[in-house]
Amino acid sequence: MSDHPSTYEPKTGVEKWLDQRLPIVRLAYDSFVDYPTPRNLNYWWTFGGILSVCLMIQIVTGIILAMHYTPHIDLAFNSVERIMRDVNYGWLIRYVHANGASMFFFAVFIHMFRGLYYGSYKAPREVLWILGCLIFFLMIATAFMGYVLPWGQMSFHGAVVITNLIGSIPVIGGPILTWLQGGFAVDQATLNRFFSLHYLLPFVIAGVVILHIWALHVVGQNNPAGVDIKSKEDTVPFTPYATVKDGLGMIFFLILFSIFVFFLPNALGHADNYIPANPLVTPAHIVPEWYLLPFYAILRAIPDKFGGVIAMFGAIAVLFVLPWLDTSKVRSMRYRPVMRWFFVIFVVVCLGLGWCGAQLPDAPVVPGLPSFTLFDGEFNSYLWLTRALTLYYFAFFLLIMPWVGLKEDPLPVPASISEAILAEHAKKKGA
Amino acid sequence: MSEPATDHGGHGDPNRRDFIYIAAGAAAVGAVAMVIPPLVDQMNPAADTLALASTEFDLSKVQEGMQVVIKWRGKPLFVRYRTPKEIKEAQDVKLTDLKDPQLDSDRVKKGKEQFLILVGSCTHLGCVPTFGAGDYGGWFCPCHGSHYDTSGRIRKGPAPKNLAVPDFQFLSDTKVKIG
């Protein structure tokens, strides 16, 4: 908390000398040792720490990969194959980097759903939430450009499809597209600049992460009860309580990570990306990486090209204004009996959008079921399922959030964190 | 610090400090404005990229009923030798049936209707359409299911426009220059 006085006392002469010149040890001590943490944090709160580790893993493995990678259309694919076959431990480092991206998104989705459920975006945490949305957007841009670098078939045609989205903007779209690609098509210039930006953006992310943590330490952490910290009884020091809890969560997360790296290294990738890029042949079925599938599904759900692009970016943009869409005074959905059900449906809808994004739009959802044509597509097709899910996605933020917040009768909210914990203990004893 | 010797508040004549303040500010804005164009324009196609903008093709390489795909400006270019049946199909379509109405005769050169030359890049999101597939005998885009007819015009699916016809001219009966 901002009003938390520093309790750091330099002990040795060196620490005292440094503390008067650059109080960096004091900053670390106040932020990660003595920092008062709500005592009711559950394991959903360990993903912030996990995400910091993800970013560090990506930066370290990425810098190493850049030492062996060549950003040239004739050499890129082979340099990646050389990393896999010849560079010492190259296979390990690349598999950690490639699967690390998936793990990063897996963790960030949980982190975001957690923030959504417990109302971590509400006052006074709006800026904290917006910085998080910005990190998410930067992550998408970074991941997309990273996926282009191996210069396989999926890399190339993914880059073609996504850059062409920009070309759909009326009037100025064409010149912007040429400017972005550095030519008339995705080519050497495009690969070279994507490499440059893919190297840069993680450090930009790291910078925004620092702002994110700064904002967090100004307003203090939210907690499962969603009530403010009121007294010393509500908190425990960050170390050892939060560090150990984060550590345990991280161990389980790294076990999952290792399972993918060592046993299923290509399970989340696409086989077509092991074919060198060929601008003259498009793979039969183009799909982005799994973590972008929900947004890809929204893009395809709209019959108009530019409209699809607007909807896809809108799906991310709506997150930025979320703090002002939720009208409820209660933060945690624990005490919002109606809203929590809409939340559960929302999670299912997001997973459903991801599923639809991987299917062919014309394919029937239930094979063999009789169907009819509705406007421009079969009713029993992923097209219409995607449209229904897209509608809920936007309705959740734009209609349900403001409306339920006004109409709902929330359950009684505990007066303090310590009271919430005592009530829970009493309930457990009674049961 | 001592008090400034002269008053440089809002009232009275602008003094030297005000002048320096405004001049420095204007210079800074001007400098930033001058720096932006080079930083932005360097991303546009370089001179060597633009220099590769045209290509020549020998039409005797393509047989009737087939197409040859060549690379032009980094994109595939379809050179299709249409059969009389395909030409007739393309010419008989009513303009009202088209999403992006255009006559077949506007897409080929007069007297050389058999040769259809198109940029092989789907106008939806730039995938390469498959030859001979789809409901209209032209092309089918595998990415998001756009169907093109034997004139390369969009008939069904999300693509908004017909496949683009590049600028081209016949140098001789069998030689064509594109771009």
From TrEMBL, chain A:
Chief place of localization: membrane
InterPro entries: Cyt_b/b6_C, Cyt_b/b6_C_sf, Cyt_b/b6_N, Cytb/b6-like_sf, Cytochrome_b, Cytochrome_b_C_euk/bac, Cytochrome_b_N_euk/bac, Di-haem_cyt_TM
Topology with respect to the bilayer: Multi-pass membrane protein
Source organism: Asticcacaulis currens
Domain Cytochrome b/b6 C-terminal region profile: start-end pairs: 228-415
Domain of life: Bacteria
Reported cofactor(s): heme b
Pfam families: Cytochrom_B_C (PF00032), Cytochrome_B (PF00033)
Record's keyword annotation contains NADP: no
Free-text cofactor note: Binds 2 heme groups non-covalently.
Coiled coil regions in record: none
Subunit annotation: The main subunits of complex b-c1 are: cytochrome b, cytochrome c1 and the Rieske protein.
Subcellular location: Membrane
Keywords attached to this entry: Electron transport, Heme, Iron, Membrane, Metal-binding, Respiratory chain, Transmembrane, Transmembrane helix, Transport
Stated name of the protein: Cytochrome b
Gene3D superfamilies tied to this protein: Cytochrome Bc1 Complex, Chain C (1.20.810.10)
Listed transmembrane segments: 43-70, 91-113, 128-149, 156-179, 199-220, 248-268, 306-326, 338-361, 381-401
Domain Cytochrome b/b6 N-terminal region profile residues, every copy: 14-225
Family to which the UniProt record says this protein belongs: Belongs to the cytochrome b family.
Function: Component of the ubiquinol-cytochrome c reductase complex (complex III or cytochrome b-c1 complex), which is a respiratory chain that generates an electrochemical potential coupled to ATP synthesis.
From TrEMBL, chain B:
Transmembrane segments: 20-40
Pfam families for the chain: Rieske, UCR_Fe-S_N
Domain Rieske: 84-177
Membrane topology of the entry: Single-pass membrane protein
Coiled coil (UniProt feature): none
Principal place of residence: membrane
Claim: Ligase is one of the keywords in the record: no
Subcellular location: Cell membrane
E.C. code: 7.1.1.8
Free-text comment on the cofactor: Binds 1 [2Fe-2S] cluster per subunit.
Cofactor(s) the record lists: [2Fe-2S] cluster
Recorded catalytic activity of this chain's protein: a quinol + 2 Fe(III)-[cytochrome c](out) = a quinone + 2 Fe(II)-[cytochrome c](out) + 2 H(+)(out)
Enzyme class: translocase
The organism's place on the tree of life at top rank: Bacteria
Quaternary assembly: The main subunits of complex b-c1 are: cytochrome b, cytochrome c1 and the Rieske protein.
Function recorded in the entry: Component of the ubiquinol-cytochrome c reductase complex (complex III or cytochrome b-c1 complex), which is a respiratory chain that generates an electrochemical potential coupled to ATP synthesis.
Misc: The Rieske protein is a high potential 2Fe-2S protein.
Family indicated by similarity: Belongs to the Rieske iron-sulfur protein family.
Name used for this protein in its record: Ubiquinol-cytochrome c reductase iron-sulfur subunit
Species per Swiss-Prot/TrEMBL record: Asticcacaulis currens
